[in-house]
Design a protein that fits this description.
The protein has 201 residues and is an alpha/beta fold. The protein contains 10 helices and 7 strands. α2 packs antiparallel against α3 (53-64) and α4 crosses α6. The two termini are 13 Å apart.
Length: 201
């Protein structure tokens, strides 16, 4: 049995962080600015589960002049997310294969999952395991998250095929023996063929 590991953001669903910045700026009556180092550290913390969504929204409210609830943040992300047709097509095909086990490995927070599942009911139906950074306590490209996945599945890296949109995450996965490929528009056809070869579809 072989395992297909999918990143979520910009693989299964697309998003643009600039849209989030614009929504926050508009809601706070301020000009839109790039994420600060503090913003990035708070994203890291909430995606590792070191902060709750409520604590993260509290930070946003204080730092950005907002008065949001977690529900407001979920609604913003729900508006931003759109299906990546190529990635989701591979996801659907993999789930239909009796010889393929399908999992996600994603840097993500609970509010992102709530936004996806609220927008598309049954989005993760048929997935064997959801490996989510906020539940595991580490984020890609930390080797710990890949080792957690392999240990949990009881498999060697060579039994797994992984796609992700960030080069550093691909390199870290390859260091653990996982067959990993960068998921960018120019590489979609190559990934399709490599997946078909790897899984024998």
């Amino acid at each position: 049995m072989k395992h297909f590991l999918f990143d979520i953001g910009n693989v299964l669903v697309d998003f643009d962080t600039d849209n989030l910045l614009r929504e926050m700026a508009q809601a706070g009556g301020r000009e839109s600015h790039a994420l600060t180092e503090k913003d990035l550290s708070m994203i890291d913390a909430v995606e590792k589960g070191w902060l709750t969504d409520e604590e993260y929204v509290g930070y946003l409210n204080q730092a950005k002049g907002l008065s949001w609830t977690v529900g407001d943040l979920v609604a913003v992300w729900s508006r931003m997310f759109s299906i990546n047709e190529t990635g989701f097509g591979l996801f659907a095909a993999a789930k239909q294969s009796e010889e393929t086990r399908v999992h996600t490995v994603s840097n993500i927070a609970r509010h992102h999952i709530d936004a996806i599942e609220g927008k598309w009911k049954g989005f993760f139906d048929g997935v064997d395991r959801l490996f989510l950074s906020y539940q595991i306590g580490s984020r890609k490209p930390d080797p710990a998250i890949y080792r957690h996945v392999l240990d949990s599945l009881g498999v060697a890296g060579g039994e797994c095929f992984f796609i992700d949109d960030r080069p550093e995450n691909i390199e870290a996965a390859r260091d653990e023996g996982i067959e990993a490929h960068i998921f960018i528009p120019g590489n979609h056809a190559v990934i399709q063929k490599k997946a078909e070869t790897f899984f024998g579809w």
